[in-house]
Every structure is written in structure tokens, then in C-alpha cells.
TrEMBL record, chain A:
<feature type="transmembrane region" description="Helical">
    <location>
        <begin position="92"/>
        <end position="117"/>
    </location>
</feature>
<feature type="transmembrane region" description="Helical">
    <location>
        <begin position="262"/>
        <end position="282"/>
    </location>
</feature>
<feature type="transmembrane region" description="Helical">
    <location>
        <begin position="204"/>
        <end position="227"/>
    </location>
</feature>
<comment type="similarity">
    <text>Belongs to the binding-protein-dependent transport system permease family.</text>
</comment>
<dbReference type="Pfam" id="PF00528">
    <property type="entry name" value="BPD_transp_1"/>
</dbReference>
<feature type="transmembrane region" description="Helical">
    <location>
        <begin position="129"/>
        <end position="149"/>
    </location>
</feature>
<keyword id="KW-0812">Transmembrane</keyword>
From TrEMBL, chain B:
<dbReference type="InterPro" id="IPR006311">
    <property type="entry name" value="TAT_signal"/>
</dbReference>
<dbReference type="InterPro" id="IPR050490">
    <property type="entry name" value="Bact_solute-bd_prot1"/>
</dbReference>
<dbReference type="InterPro" id="IPR006059">
    <property type="entry name" value="SBP"/>
</dbReference>
<protein>
    <submittedName>
        <fullName>Carbohydrate-binding protein</fullName>
    </submittedName>
</protein>
<dbReference type="Pfam" id="PF01547">
    <property type="entry name" value="SBP_bac_1"/>
</dbReference>
<feature type="signal peptide">
    <location>
        <begin position="1"/>
        <end position="27"/>
    </location>
</feature>
<keyword id="KW-0813">Transport</keyword>
UniProtKB/TrEMBL annotation, chain C:
<feature type="domain" description="ABC transmembrane type-1">
    <location>
        <begin position="86"/>
        <end position="296"/>
    </location>
</feature>
<feature type="transmembrane region" description="Helical">
    <location>
        <begin position="170"/>
        <end position="198"/>
    </location>
</feature>
<dbReference type="InterPro" id="IPR035906">
    <property type="entry name" value="MetI-like_sf"/>
</dbReference>
<keyword id="KW-0812">Transmembrane</keyword>
<keyword id="KW-1003">Cell membrane</keyword>
<keyword id="KW-0813">Transport</keyword>
<dbReference type="InterPro" id="IPR051393">
    <property type="entry name" value="ABC_transporter_permease"/>
</dbReference>
Length: 298, 423, 305
């Protein structure tokens, strides 16, 4: 289930064509089906198109609230206003900060923990630690939220830093599960060879284990980014100071105030969505394979 | 509210440093200013924030060693207590939220302050609406608000209508306006609190002994229900039915209008009456200083002697037990409670004094209420006696929007009993 | 998955397992695990224990409190607001699971067939997975509140002329649509993986037997995809039970309280002084999540055998 599926899902070059041929008979491509699916993509594209189109309107045109009229003239007025109103550099920076902690933690902490558990699978304590961490997959945030609010306040972690740490911890079980499974597929000889060369455990991890883990760690890291960047629930409950809120939470302000300045709100939505979409475009193959990996393991 | 007291910041940055991430978490804190002790002062009454800010400036000039940080972030107070980081001093509405803080022993005792002895007895009685903490004076009353029907004197005069003193006179006045094509009452029902604190409180307060009602309800506790000797179903039904008969005297789009719309409309003479308090009168004065505003209690019976005005403790000062700078907080508290600071504030905010030596109100927009206050013809809003975990404001909105009254009152009884069982 | 059952480790014994050394565990290994374990305990295990503890008290989140035994639990089962949010959440989740899986399955079948532009189309269909739920909910809120009524008025379709978000009987539908919109890609990718794992000669053989596409779907695709359907149904159901972001963005629980999810109800305990009470709600919610996990493990184990 490891590398072969990455190829088949991620690049789709190896798709077995014989079966479709058998089903469809002589035609190489099924044109009606292609058209139906192309129409279906509108369900995805229309909301995104409306977002972009509204964002580039002038205030006067946006206030009409017409979703499908094109911006006439093109204007970046909405972006300028949204930039100021959401204090974009700060909220963007805080979102980056939270996501960076979540990604670094997901990749490093999960990898190290997975390696330690893998290398000591025969020991009761490590096995216990593994199931202990896994058990948290049944404790979603709403169950723990009220206690976490209190505890995070008590230790001064009712901040973006605290949210980053919680993001790591909520993903830990799943990530350790993925990574230990991956490590089991690793040839034992690799580690042994490093040992014979006199490398310490620390060196072995960095020179041998981590490079081997890196494809899976990349998947883990990208999902950590998407989860952390897009999350609204945890920052909105944990971060106490409204001035330290992340982008998704800050965008709530358009719900109460300035409600008909659609060019501003949509410009702001676009600026909040764009980074995740850009990351996705560049990391498609890990995203696509990651979902499948996760499903098969969980 | 980009500022945090330095103590919090240093604690946070310590932790951040431990994680190797110092600096990034400091984004939200302001630079320190010398050796002054920063104390966090929580105050969210929106209409007076600029005024209070100036007072804080004066205080800092007189006490350079103490730097008050003005925390005006609405809706964060409960969270601050849950997170064990309450403000050092607060100047807030005395309501059920406050009562929870005092009941659970989170507010420090202020009874030793000389200022406490100056509070009038009738104001002290108002503290009885909520459960208190034994042996403590948890809050120091600061400003009392009296509220009654706000009316436009010019429109009344134009149509030859005098101030009504009985319910039938009130209905007659409404009909006169309606016949003349004038909106009798401006409704802002999109904001549930304006329904609860206006329509509901005025109609109930004009007919029911509110403090007595809650004392009995608290005695009954979990036994409150359709068959108990006192219940919301029994006591509130008649006044609220009467309230519903007043709805047709509101403008047609009251459902979709909010508090801001109402202030604008009333300031521009779009209605004869407005069921709001002096806080709205201040706003109306800002929008149109020429509006001739007066106030009268909503008559609910045929006996003028039954008429009362609604009062509440609009502001009270308190210091949490867990405040980090108790002494400095007390310094600021005593500064704010000085008569030469407190009395001009009340004049500015159209509040009534709470001290024995406080001067009577002089603003003619509210002087009509002074006689009622003086002779104790006052009531507390029924909406203020119901804990906030019962969504009473939303229930009121439902009823005004057309839901049946009886199921709502039955639900209120059930909510009250359920709450009492786990108190 | 099977790793979480108690007898599983023996079966899934790691391929690279070495004979366990008898000496004490490597210090570096301990360093790799122990701090994480400690942080995990503080962030996850401690709050869980604390939540259960407080659910037996009358705490408002601060200050003094007393034990009240099972009072919170007794009362929450008769509290119409809490029960309504449980029923709403379960019902909404069930409807959305069905909608999501049907759409995802059909898309997966389409996207594994011989079509043009397969790679770009797959990429497009995955986009909803990567956008922020609350932000996209804000966008849809605009479409439901402004665009849809305008369109309905233009064609004279009465039921949609007023915003469905303001209609207590229809607001849930908007939440189902947006939640499904976002959840379809994940389920679809899993179905695609499943479809690609079906050997092509099965179809060839059945085609020789004269089976048409519909017959092939019934005889081959659906039976062989059963385990993937089970995985997807469970995964999506578990996610939907925690519904929060999209509801906040679309209706904020309204109109009235008609679309309030369990998560929103629990969070309300933080603002209103219902701290301990909503901790009890959270504990019940945890038990429901756990029950679903047990069902999940049972189903998975059956699949393995």
C-alpha cells in the first residue's frame, strides 16, 4: 500500500485501461461521461469563481450583490480595505506561525516518537505508549474543549503557540500510526549498516531513518498544514486575546459589520483561502496519496 | 485590546522562550513604560469608553507609578475568570454574570472602604436581586440608571397629547398618534435585548413585585412548575398578554430593525415613543441634539399611584480575589469613586447617584424620573433576574415574533427548576 | 486499524522487528518519546480526566464548587436544548453521510473511466478539501442568502424566494450541502483507490459472459468495494459529529436554535456558567464517539478475516 499507490493515485499514469475498454466497447474515450463530469466540476468552480469575481469589484458594484456579474472595472479596492480591516500582516503572520508549529511538530515529533516505538516494539512500555497515543483518536476537540480552555489559560498558553501545540497533539495519534506502519516496511539492514559504522542512535535517526521516512513525513506535514491553516474551532476557543486571532477567525468580523461591502469580505476570504490552494497545487501527489494511506490505516 | 499586563507577557514569553520561540508571541504586547505597575481595568459600556479613558489619563498623571490598561473587549469577561486571569479592577453592569462571580467567592471584600458606608440604603437593597457571598461586600455601586418610556415632547405637543398616567390614557395616546399617521412606538426587535429590557421589563415591572417574585422563586427552586404556588406561568402571563396588545402600535418593520436603527429613527422624529433607557437618550442626543426628549413610566393599571420606573445598577466597581495588583486596583477604585469624579460622570451618562450626598439629576431629559426614584417607586427588570443560561431574551423575541405565550412560560418554569436542581 | 484491537499486534508483527535486546532502552529513544508523551498527557489525557471529574460538580468554570453527583446527567437528558442538539447532530450526520458517499462514489467511478482530461478534473474535484471550512461557508452563505433567492424570484420558484438560511425548516439543508461539498473529495479519493485495486480481468471475463455496465456494477464493483464503503461511512460520520465551523459560517446555529450542533452546545458552557453541566454533555458525547469506534473496529475486523 505504500509507493505503488502513490504513483497510481498521484500521477494516474498507470491506470489499467483494459477494464474500461471492456466496459465501453470500441471508443477510446467516453465523451458523454466526460461532459457530465465537466459540468459537475462547476459545483466546485462556481463558488471559487464568485469569490474571485466579487473580490475584484468596486464597492459600488459589489453592493448590488450580484454573484455572476463580472467585475467592471477591475478594482483592488476590496483588497486594500480588507488588508487594513483584518490587520492582514498580523493575522496572516499568526496563521503562518500556528501552521509552522503544527507542521514542524507533526513531522519531527511524530517521526521521533514513531521511531522510538518502532525500535522498542518488544518492550511493554513502548507498546503501551503506542496504544495510549492512539486512544486519543476517540477524543475530539469538543469533548476536551472546556478543560483545555481552563488549562491553557492557567499556564499562559491561551495564545497562538498553545493552539499550535494542541494541533500537534490532536494529530499525533494518527501520524504515529501512519509512520510506524511505514517504518515496518523499511528493510532492517539499512539501520544495521549504520550501526555497524558506529553511528549513534541520534545519528542513525537523522542519516538513515528520517530520510527513509521523508515521503510519508511530507504527507503528514502537508496535512498538518492544511488542517492547521484552515482550523477555526480551536483558535476561536483557545486564543483569549482577539488581537492575536488567526485568519479564519478574523474573517468572522464581516458577518456582523460592513455586511454589504462584499468586495472587502470576498477579497479577505480569497486572501485566506489562497495559501492553502497554492500549497495544494504544488503538493498534489502527496495530498492525493495521503488520503488513501490514511483511510487504509485508520 | 492589543495589550496585556506585563506580568502575563513575561510569563508567556518565558514559556515561549522555553520552546525556543520567544519573540513571536510578543506580537500582541505593548512596550513597557518605565517602572509603572500596569493594571488591567475592564470596562465595556460602549457609550462612555472615551470618557472613562480620559479619567484613566488623569489618574495616571496623579499616580505615575500605576499605569491602567483599558480593556474594552466585549464578551471576554467570563473567559478571563475561567482562564484564571481576571482583570485587576472592573467597572461593569451589575447583572447575573457579575452575581455568579460574587456568589462563587471570586470577588474581594470591599466593605472596609470608607466609600462603602456612603452608599444609600435603597441602592444597597438592589444588590438583593442576586445571590451574594456571605460576609462580603463584593461590589461598590457606582452609577444607577432609571429607565422609562422615552418620548418626543414636540410630537406629543403637536398632537395635543399629555403624559399618560393610566393604561387607558396610554392606549388612547397611541391611537391618537396612529390615527394621525405617526408611529406611536419605535420597535427594534432584531436585537432581543431591546425587547426584554424595554417592552417586557416595563410591562411586567408596572404590574408585578419583581424582587418578591424572585425571592419566592428562589425559595421554591426545583419545585417551580405549572402547579407551584408561584411560577412564571402564573405571574407573567397577564402582563405579557397586555404587552402583546401593544405590538400593533409599533412600526411595520420593527422585526428587522436594531438598536442603532432605533436611535437614528427616534432622533429624527420618526416615532412618538421609544421603550429604551437613558443610554439610548445619550445616543439620540449625539445624533440630533435638538430632539426634545422626556421620560415617563409606562402605566400598566388604572391607578397612577402604581406607576414606577425601572432601575438597575448600571455600573459597579469590583476587584477580583485573584487580581494580581490588589493595592493598585484599590487606588484606582478610590480615585474613580471620588465625588468630584463620580458626580460629573453620572451627569455625563445620565445616571443617578448612589451616594447619600449625591446631587439630584439636572438633565431635563431625565428629571421627570427623579420624583419616582426619590419616593422609591422603582422596580428592577424581570429580565435581569433570570440567569443568562436561560435564553430569556430569545424567548421574548420568539413571543413578539408570534410564538405562543403559554408554552414559552412553561418552558421558562422548567428551565428555572432544572437550573435549581444542579445549582 | 486492526492495531487498536488487543490481539492484533501478534498478527501484524512488524516485518523489521529485531530480537528485543535485554538491556535498558536506548536513552535517545526515551528522549524521542518521553517529552512527547508528557505533553500529550497534559494536553489530551489530563483535560479528559478533568472533564469527567467536573461533570459531577456544579462548577461554573471558576471559584467555589460542590459535588452534585449525577444531577447534571439526570438533567441533561430532560433538557430540550441539549437533546435537540444531539438529535440534530445525529440526523444531520446521517443525511450528510449518505449524500457524501453517493456523490463521492459516482464521481470516483466516473473519474476512473476512460474520460478526457482526467488528471485536471481530479485535481479540481479535490480542491474543496483544501479550503477553510468556515471561509467557504461564508461564501456559500452569500450564495444562499442573496444569489439563490434572486434566481428563484427570476424564475418564479416560490419555496426558494426567501433565504433558506432564515427558514427553520430548510436551514439544515444548506449545512448538508456545504458539508458534503467539502467532504466529497476525501471519500472520492478512497473510492478511486478501491476501484483501481479491482483487477481488470474480472470485468473482461464478465463482459465475455455478456454482462452490461449495470450488471458489472452490481456483480463486481459494489461487492468488491464494500469494505471501502464501510471505511468511508465511518470516517465521514465521525467527522460530521463534530460539526462546528461550517455551521458557524452558515447559520450560527439559527434560526432560533434549529441548527445547533453538539459542539456548539458544549462550547456554550464556557460563556454561560454551564461549565460543569456542559462537561457532562461532553462526556456523553465522548461515549457516543466511543461506541461508534467500537462498531468501527468490529466491522474492520470482520473485513480483515
Amino acid at each position: 500500500m505504500s509507493s505503488s499507490s502513490i504513483d497510481s493515485i498521484g500521477t494516474t499514469r498507470r491506470i489499467p485501461t483494459n477494464r474500461s475498454k471492456a466496459r465501453l466497447g470500441k471508443d477510446k474515450y467516453n465523451l458523454p461521461l466526460t461532459i457530465v463530469l465537466a459540468v459537475c466540476t462547476l459545483a466546485v468552480l462556481v463558488p471559487l469563481f464568485v469569490t474571485v469575481s466579487m473580490a475584484f469589484k468596486t464597492g459600488a458594484q459589489a453592493v448590488e450583490g450580484k454573484a455572476f456579474s463580472l467585475p467592471q472595472p477591475l478594482s483592488i479596492e476590496g483588497f486594500v480595505e480588507a488588508w487594513k480591516m483584518t490587520d492582514f500582516p498580523v493575522s496572516f503572520g499568526l496563521s503562518v506561525f500556528v501552521s509552522a508549529i503544527a507542521v514542524a511538530g507533526a513531522v519531527l515529533i511524530s517521526s521521533m516518537a514513531a521511531y522510538a516505538i518502532h525500535a522498542n516494539w518488544g518492550r511493554k512500555f513502548f507498546k503501551f505508549a503506542f496504544f495510549y497515543i492512539l486512544a486519543a483518536m476517540f477524543l475530539p476537540f469538543p469533548v476536551l474543549a472546556l478543560s483545555q480552555i481552563k488549562l491553557s489559560g492557567l499556564v499562559g498558553l491561551d495564545t497562538p503557540l498553545g493552539v499550535g501545540i494542541l494541533h500537534i497533539m490532536f494529530m499525533l495519534g494518527f501520524n504515529v500510526l501512519l509512520l510506524t506502519t511505514f517504518l515496518r516496511g523499511m528493510p532492517h539492514e539499512l539501520e544495521e549498516a549504520a550501526r555497524i559504522d558506529g553511528a549513534s542512535t541520534w545519528q542513525t535517526f537523522w542519516r538513515v531513518i528520517f530520510p527513509v521516512l521523508s515521503p510519508m513525513a511530507a504527507t503528514v506535514g502537508i496535512f498538518a498544514f492544511l488542517f492547521s491553516w484552515n482550523d477555526f474551532m480551536m483558535p476561536s476557543m483557545i486564543i483569549s486575546d482577539p488581537a492575536l486571532q488567526t485568519l479564519p477567525v478574523v474573517n468572522q468580523l464581516f458577518q456582523s459589520q460592513f455586511s454589504s461591502n462584499y468586495h472587502i469580505s470576498f477579497a479577505s476570504y480569497l486572501m485566506a483561502m489562497a495559501p492553502a490552494i497554492i500549497v495544494f497545487v504544488f503538493t498534489q501527489r502527496w495530498v492525493l496519496s495521503g488520503v488513501t494511506q490514511g483511510a487504509v490505516k485508520s | 485590546m492589543a495589550t496585556q499586563p506585563p506580568s502575563t507577557v513575561s510569563r508567556r514569553s518565558l514559556l515561549a522562550g522555553a520552546a525556543g520561540l520567544a519573540g513571536l508571541t510578543l506580537a500582541g504586547c505593548s512596550g513597557s513604560s518605565g517602572d509603572a505597575t500596569a493594571i488591567r481595568f475592564y470596562q465595556t459600556k460602549r457609550e462612555v469608553i472615551p470618557y472613562i479613558r480620559e479619567l484613566l489619563g488623569e489618574f495616571h498623571a496623579e499616580f505615575p507609578g500605576i499605569r491602567p490598561i483599558h480593556d474594552t473587549s466585549e464578551g471576554t469577561l467570563n473567559g478571563q475568570f475561567v482562564r484564571s486571569s481576571p482583570p485587576d479592577l472592573a467597572l461593569q453592569l451589575y447583572n447575573y454574570e457579575m452575581a455568579r462571580f460574587q456568589e462563587r467567592g471570586e470577588l474581594s471584600d470591599l466593605s472596609d472602604l470608607p466609600e462603602a458606608a456612603m452608599i444609600t440604603d435603597s441602592v444597597k437593597e438592589q444588590l438583593d436581586l442576586y445571590p451574594s457571598y456571605p460576609g462580603r461586600l463584593s461590589v461598590l455601586p457606582y452609577s444607577m440608571m432609571s429607565a422609562a418610556v422615552v418620548y418626543n415632547k414636540e410630537i406629543f405637543a403637536q398632537h395635543g397629547v399629555g403624559v399618560p398616567t393610566t393604561h387607558s390614557e396610554f392606549i388612547a395616546a397611541c391611537e391618537t398618534f396612529q390615527d394621525a399617521g405617526v408611529t406611536p412606538i419605535y420597535g427594534t426587535w432584531a436585537d432581543p435585548w431591546t425587547i426584554a429590557q424595554g417592552l417586557v421589563d416595563y410591562t411586567v415591572g408596572g404590574m408585578v413585585d419583581v424582587i418578591g417574585l424572585f425571592q419566592q422563586l428562589r425559595e421554591l427552586g426545583p419545585d417551580v412548575g405549572p402547579d407551584s404556588r408561584v411560577s412564571f406561568s402564573k405571574v407573567l402571563r397577564e402582563p405579557l398578554e397586555k404587552m402583546l396588545t401593544l405590538l400593533p402600535f409599533h412600526q411595520g418593520d420593527a422585526n428587522g430593525r436594531n438598536y442603532g436603527d432605533g436611535n437614528n429613527a427616534f432622533a429624527n422624529g420618526q416615532a412618538a415613543m421609544y421603550l429604551q433607557g437613558p443610554w439610548a437618550v445619550v445616543e439620540i442626543g449625539k445624533i440630533n441634539p435638538d430632539t426634545q426628549v422626556g421620560t415617563f413610566p409606562l402605566p400598566m393599571t388604572e391607578d397612577p399611584a402604581d406607576n414606577k420606573v425601572r432601575v438597575n445598577l448600571d455600573l459597579a466597581l469590583w476587584i477580583p480575589e485573584k487580581a494580581k495588583h490588589q493595592d493598585e486596583a484599590r487606588e484606582l477604585l478610590r480615585f474613580l469613586a471620588r465625588p468630584e469624579i463620580q458626580d460629573p460622570y453620572n451627569e455625563h451618562a445620565l445616571g443617578f447617584g448612589v451616594r447619600k450626598d449625591a446631587p439630584p439629576v439636572t438633565d431635563e431629559r431625565i428629571t421627570q424620573m427623579q420624583p419616582y426614584v426619590d419616593r422609591g417607586a422603582v422596580f428592577q427588570g424581570v429580565s435581569q433576574g433570570i440567569p443568562t443560561n436561560i435564553p430569556f431574551y430569545n424567548y421574548c423575541q420568539d413571543v413578539v415574533f408570534g410564538a405562543d405565550l403559554e408554552p414559552m412560560l412553561a418552558r421558562l418554569d422548567a428551565d428555572w427548576a432544572r437550573l435549581a436542581k444542579r445549582a | 486499524m486492526s492495531l487498536t484491537s488487543s490481539e492484533a499486534p501478534a498478527r501484524t508483527a512488524p516485518a523489521g522487528l529485531r530480537p528485543t535486546p535485554k538491556r535498558r532502552p536506548d536513552k535517545t529513544h526515551l528522549f524521542f518519546l518521553l517529552p512527547t508523551l508528557a505533553a500529550f498527557t497534559l494536553c489530551i489525557a489530563l483535560p479528559a480526566v478533568m472533564g469527567i471529574f467536573y461533570s459531577f460538580t456544579n462548577s461554573v468554570g471558576y471559584g467555589e464548587w460542590d459535588f452534585v453527583g449525577l444531577a447534571n446527567y439526570e438533567l441533561l437528558f430532560t433538557d430540550p436544548a441539549i437533546m435537540a442538539s444531539f438529535w440534530f447532530t445525529l440526523w444531520f450526520s446521517a443525511v450528510t453521510v449518505i449524500a457524501t458517499n453517493i456523490v463521492a462514489f459516482l464521481l470516483a467511478v466516473g473519474l476512473t473511466a476512460q474520460i478526457r482530461a482526467r488528471v485536471p478534473m481530479r485535481a479540481i474535484f479535490v480542491i474543496p478539501m483544501v479550503v477553510s471550512p468556515i471561509i467557504i461557508a461564508f461564501v456559500f452563505q452569500f450564495l444562499f442568502a442573496r444569489t439563490l433567492p434572486t434566481a428563484a424570484r427570476a424564475v418564479g420558484f416560490g419555496p426558494l424566494e426567501d433565504s433558506i438560511l432564515a427558514n427553520p425548516n430548510l436551514a439544515w439543508a444548506s449545512i448538508v450541502i456545504v458539508t458534503a461539498w467539502q467532504a466529497v473529495p476525501g471519500a472520492m479519493l478512497i473510492y478511486i483507490a478501491g476501484l483501481l485495486a479491482i483487477p481488470g480481468d474480472l470485468y473482461e471475463a464478465s463482459a465475455l459472459d455478456g454482462a452490461g455496465p449495470w450488471k458489472q456494477m452490481q456483480m463486481i464493483t459494489i461487492p468488491l468495494m464494500a469494505s471501502y464503503i464501510v471505511i468511508n461511512v465511518i470516517l465521514t460520520f465521525k467527522n460530521f459529529l463534530n460539526a462546528y465551523d461550517i455551521i458557524v459560517g452558515l447559520t450560527d446555529g439559527g434560526p432560533g436554535t434549529s441548527t445547533r450542533s453538539v459542539a456548539m452546545t458544549i462550547f456554550s458552557g464556557f460563556e454561560t456558567g454551564d461549565y460543569a453541566y456542559q462537561m457532562a454533555t461532553a462526556t456523553i458525547f465522548f461515549l457516543i464517539t466511543l461506541a461508534i469506534a467500537v462498531v468501527q473496529m468490529r466491522l474492520m475486523r470482520r473485513k480483515d478475516q
